[in-house]
TrEMBL record:
Residues 166-211 are annotated as: Disordered. PROSITE patterns: PROKAR_LIPOPROTEIN. Residues 180-211 have a biased composition (Low complexity). The keyword Signal applies. This is DUF461 domain-containing protein. It holds the Pfam family PCuAC.
Length: 211
């Protein structure tokens, strides 16, 4: 075999080995390394899938509400309702509001519902600073009418940059101190007059003249 043919055979062998290695990686125990997972929390239980779940707090270091955002998919053949959301370590209730009307958040079959953002359903935590800390991965549990509990860890971020339009709609304003007049009396009168006149005028006439 000539030198050029030998080099060509070696190159072809190297290509075959490379392809075989890639195929083994894709079909073996390390196949999951080829998957790209989103930065935000996602999980699925039964017919329910949660995606991009995030806890969004106040944009600055202030007390006030926080919200839970994300997308809920119902891949089942029947509707379900989102009954509650619980945040680990927070005893308060997460207020759920449908996008329209006063009823519960309903997920029709083969559809999705978005939490957070203008015109969408919402999940509001009244005391955001007590429920979550920026930078943490908070355990959040969704409860559905049929599927039951679906827990996952959600990142806690302030309502800045990409999350600005999805944060709490009511951002607290620091109240101005009330001013009071400095010269007003600090007390009330402590007593009443101690006496009344004891007599009548001494110069009145005791009898009329000419009688």
């Amino acid at each position: 075999m000539s030198r050029s043919l030998r080099r060509g055979a070696l190159a072809a062998s190297a290509i075959v080995v490379s392809i075989a290695s890639l195929s083994a990686c894709g079909s073996g125990n390390d196949a999951q390394t080829l998957q790209v997972k989103p930065d935000n929390a996602a999980t699925s239980v039964g017919d329910i899938k949660l995606q991009n779940v995030t806890v969004i707090t106040q944009p600055d270091a202030a007390t006030g509400p926080a919200v839970i955002t994300g997308t809920i998919f119902n891949n089942g053949t029947g509707p379900q309702t989102l009954d509650s959301i619980a945040v680990k370590g927070y005893d308060g209730k997460v207020a759920l509001h449908a996008a329209k009307g006063a009823g519960p958040i309903t997920l029709p079959a083969q559809s999705s519902v978005t939490l957070g953002g203008k015109g969408n359903a919402s999940a509001v935590i009244a005391d955001g600073s007590a429920a979550a800390t920026d930078g943490n991965a908070q355990l959040v549990t969704f409860s559905f009418s049929d599927t039951g509990e679906v827990p996952l860890r959600a990142f806690v971020v302030p309502a800045r940059s990409y999350f600005e339009g999805y944060g709490p709609s009511s951002i607290p304003v620091t109240p101005k101190p009330k001013e009071t007049p400095s010269g007003t009396p600090t007390g009330t009168a402590s007593g009443t007059p101690s006496g009344t006149p004891e007599g009548t005028p001494s110069g009145t006439t005791s009898a009329t003249t000419g009688q």
